Amino acid sequence: MSHSAGEYKSHAPIFLKVGAALFALTGLTVYVAYHVDLGNHAANMAFGLFIAAFKCTLVALIFMHLKEERGLIYKFLLFTVVFFLAMVFLFVLCLKDPIHNKFPEINMPWSKVIN
Amino acid sequence: MEIPYTVTARPDTGLWNAKIGIWLFLASEVMLFGGLFSSYIFLRVGADYPWPFHELHVWPGLTNTFVLIASSVTVLMALDSLKLRKYGAYKMYMVLTILCALIFMGLKSFEYYGKFTHWGVKLKDNSFVDGHEPHDHVAFGKVATVTLNLEHAEAEWLKEVKGAAPKFKDASGKSVELTAGLVDDLRSQWHKDWQTAEGAVLEVNDKIRDIKDSAEQHGIDESALKALEAKLADAKKARDAVTSSVKLTVDGAPILVEATRGHLRHWTKKELVYRDGTKLDGELENDHLDFHAVTGWDVRAVKGLDENINAADNALIWKYLGEDKRQAFLKQKKEAIDAWVSKYSSKHKNVPNVEEVAIAAALKDPDFLREGFRQREDDHSTAHFVTPVANEDIKFYSNYTPRMNPYYAIYFMMTGLHGLHVIGGASVLAYFLCFGRKMYEKDPEHLCNRVEVGGLFWHFVDLVWIFLFPVFYLL
Questions:
Q1: Which residue from A4, A10, A48 is facing B474, i.e. has the nearest CB?
Q2: On chain A, which terminus has fewer CB atoms closer than 10 Å, C or N?
Q3: Burial of B464 (0-12, 13-18, 19+ CB in 10 A)
Q4: β-pairing verdict for B271-274 and B264-267
């Protein structure tokens, strides 16, 4: 991504548009968290986290120029994503009942969403 | 030697040095925050108390989110200007970015301050009351004698005596004025006495050893040995009689102390012992926490509430908040139940005993519990009164710091670490702003690369906040 001054074209409009989208999505998250009942608390949580993940994707792809990067960085990030997800879902292991060697039916946030 | 690929990309990877470095660093940062998010999930899933969601004020968090997004845009605009070789615009956008960082940290400190000055008391039945300025003391009166333990004694406790400065008499009946200086004098006298007595013991001991050592040559002088052993016993007795405790009698009217609980080692109905070992004999008059401006209550964790919807009707806090607040709670509870039942029965038309089923479901729903079993009175003017809470009813009390509960522990941990990242990132950007000119004149692309790397870190800081905000403030 090396440019000499002559050939570089400003990306300002796209940055401003993405910035505005992030503002709007933040507003939406707050509005939904306080004023919209999506059925139950778990559904509201899922919605909030989904929007946050979407905002993160926007920041990473456009603000952090990942869209324009090539192979090597994606290879690093593949490991990062895998380990990050592993850590996030690590808690599932602590739910396991070691005596009966199975996962008990615990009232988890998503069990409400599924049922 | 010129280091290769600081400005231009390496042809095979398409990356220059610093970019590969920052991405590796950011990957490790994701692991760091990933570990903390993982801890957050563990704490939330395993919480045995109602998880405090919607408890932080939204507006500072929301403003900070906007501020960070704006700063992410301005740092990109700075890079953009630099690439267009507009140094003036670059400087302006950098200043704006740093300004955003300052606003962010300012708001964050404002929030932290609010938490540090806000207190909560958990009573024995897990009902909870919120407020400010706790004044925690044990009133102990009719104090007629005071025993100092010279090993650690200080005169600090005298500051907690109510009324005029007390006068004391020592064991011989002489009047003494108890001051820090006097305590020091008594302590050095005690040290001196003890050393003299211990010296006497050692001296006799030495003599006995000499007799025993010379036994082979001269035989033992039994009578001398016996006399010395008797002397040794006397010397030991004299040494053991040197005591570090000094008993003082109050001269005049008995005194009253209002002792801060944190200063005490223990207390009973008849004695009160400070942490420096000073013991007061008297009578316990009052043992409570004065709690100012009660700002809210929470009965969601009251024992038995998970089974019985009326379990909180006679919670301990109503004893302190009064019948009016209790009636208000009962009304609030009834409204929440009515709203829930009507919503539930419209959804589940064919369920027999729908009210019973609805209430059982309600007790598992965090939103319902918040609606009916918790109150925050943020308008302090209407809430200002003082409640003395008896110590025997208190299970735990704390200000809103990591000590309060695991939610606040992880909140301060993660937002604190994020704050440090903001400070670090802003410092790096400020460096580029202040000292970038020389590099810009020599090789503007090199400065572009630096700003891009600094910017990547800055976007990462924004990215972490994008998750922290909903996780702690909204969900």
A1: A48
A2: C
A3: buried
A4: antiparallel
CA-to-CA separations, B3 to B6, B16, B17, B119, B315, in angstroms, rounded: 7, 11, 10, 57, 72
Residue B348 has pLDDT above 90, yes or no: no
Residue A82: list chain B partners with CB under 8 A: none
Q: Is B283 helix (H, G, I), strand (E, B) or coil?
A: strand
Tell me which residue of B224, B184, B185 sits closest to B204, measured CA to CA. Answer: B224
Question: Is there a contact between B336 and B372 (Cβ–Cβ < 8 Å)?
Answer: yes
Contact A63 B72 (CB under 8 A): yes
Contact B6, A55 (CB under 8 A): no
Rounded to two decimals, the pTM is 0.81
Contacts 24+ apart (CB under 8 A), B418-422: B418/B461, B418/B464, B418/B465, B418/B468, B419/B105, B419/B108, B421/B460, B421/B461, B421/B464, B422/B101, B422/B104, B422/B105, B422/B461
Pairing of strands B394-399, B119-123: antiparallel
Question: Hey, are the CB atoms on A52 and B58 less than 8 Å from each other?
Answer: no
Q: Which amino acid is at B385?
A: F
Q: Report d(CA B57, CA B53) in Å as an integer.
A: 10
Nearest to B457 by CA among A107, A46, A64, A13: A64
Instruction: Check if A60 contacts B (Cβ < 8 Å).
Output: yes
Q: Minimal Cα distance from A73: which residue of B?
A: B23
Of the candidates B387, B388, B408, the one whose C-alpha atom is nearest the C-alpha of residue B398 is: B408
Instruction: Name the more confident of B347 and B472.
Output: B472
Cβ–Cβ of A79/B27 closer than 8 Å?
A: yes
pLDDT digits (tens, 9 = 90+) for A29-77: 999 998 888 877 788 889 999 999 999 999 999 999 988 887 888 988 9
In chain A, the N- to C-terminal Cα span, in Å, equals 49
**CA angle centred on B124, ends B121 and B130, rounded to 5°:** 20
Q: Which two tokens stand for residue A96?
A: 């396991």
What are the tens digits of pLDDT across the range B98-133? Answer: 999 999 999 999 999 999 999 999 999 999 988 888
Nearest 5°: the CA angle B464, B468, B473 is 160
Find chain B residues with C-beta within 8 A of A45's C-beta: 475
Q: Number of A:B CB contacts under 8 A?
A: 143
Q: Of the given ranges (B144-148, B232-236, B292-296, B301-305), which has the lowest mean pLDDT?
A: B292-296
Nearest to A41 among B8, B367, B444 (CB): B367
Cα separation, B196 vs B202, whole angstroms: 10
